[in-house]
Amino acid sequence: MPSFLTRRLAVLATAHFTIDSYSSFFLPLLPLLMVRLGLNYTMIGGLVAIGSMSSSFSQPLFGLLSDRLSRPWFVVLGPLIAALFLSSIGLAPNYLTLVVLLVIGGFGVAMFHPQTAAMAGNSGPKRGMAMSFWVTGGTLGWALGPLFATSTAHGFGLDHTYVAAIPGVIMCVVLGAWFLRQAPVPLAKRTRTRLSDLAPIARPLLLLYFAVTTRSAVSSGFATFLPLYAHAKGWSVAQGGTLTTVYLLAGALGGMFGGWLADHHGGRAVVRQSFLLSIPFYVLFFLLPDKLGIPCLVLGYFILQGSLPVNVVMGQELSPAHSGTISSLLMGAAWGLGALLIGPIGLLADHAGLHTALMVLSSLIVVGLGCALALPDIRRHKSAEPQATAESELA
Questions:
Q1: Which end of the chain is more exposed for a tag (fewer CB within 10 A), N or C?
Q2: What CATH number does residue 174 fall under?
């Protein structure tokens, strides 16, 4: 077993895999839902944006609360709520119901992430690899979610996708049994975070925030529209789901590789290079025929996602005592803002075509590169607070 892989980290990564498989569950089913409910690209973009608001912008609230909890109950309830509601989208009779299911399921996703990110980041001495392993668990789940969805819809029908909730329910039971055996965090060691506490690290934190925002916009946008792009090319729903799975799987592997590089060469270098080196491959996707362009897109996403776990680790290192709050800002609020940008991309796709809209979306990588180049050395901005609070997460 690798030295960084503790039993706690293995449990957290498995749970992350489970819950994030529901986050992408609806993506390959969009072509079917578009036909059934009469949706257009603008409505699809709005759907993703609204759903992401619940799962992302509420994370800072849960992050603030999780830093004060004695036991991680959010970690237990999150997978249950996400599984029950996000797997039930096939039951939606109209657009409004579909939105409600995604929003409530998104709250389950939001409950889970901040606390587990803080616990994973403090689960061993190799923070980069530990966080990469936890993040990779989630990105693998997100990558395999489309395949999970198409298999469920094919086997049981679109009206019975709710049977896919079973793994999430089982994971809730497993997590409940596991965390009941964990010692509660003493009251004296819990953190009462105020946003003013983050003022000394505002500049590097903001640069990280906008770097994450631009990357997540590109990531979420392509994950949303790639099945529709494939469908417009004449591919089946199953083929579009497979393509989306391959694309997201490449990102998951890129995140793991990026964590390893960060432990050896530093996080700032990985963040900069991930943006810089991914740009040519996204350009080639638009210039080459699909037979060559799609592999370039997959490779570009592998490189771009190399900074995914690194950003979170760098943020946590700015102030270890506020790991939950910072994690929620970088994984929740930043990803949520990135997802909001998908709404205008959908509107643009309706008026100028999906190909043009994806080109505009890809240009955000250049903005992310600018933020990455402006990043200072995070180690010089580390908070001077005692490490005891962060270390209490190991209890």
A1: N
A2: 1.20.1250.20
